[in-house]
Design goal:
It is a single chain. The protein has one domain. Helices cover 81% and strands 0% of the residues. It contains two helices and no strands. The protein has helices spanning 8-29, 33-57.
Amino acid sequence: MRNDKDNLIVKKTFDFALGIIDYSEELRTRNKFEMCTQLFKSGTSLFKLTNFQIVKYC
């Protein structure tokens, strides 16, 4: 059964991922492409993995 209550972990990881996206865009404007790509992948995968685990077990 799925629980639709607010989940603190999902909210914090989502906010973190949004911050990573914003910072990645800043790095891209400074032509730090390699760092931007790595940071974007690792930062957003944290939310994806956390969200997947919560949906899987709810």
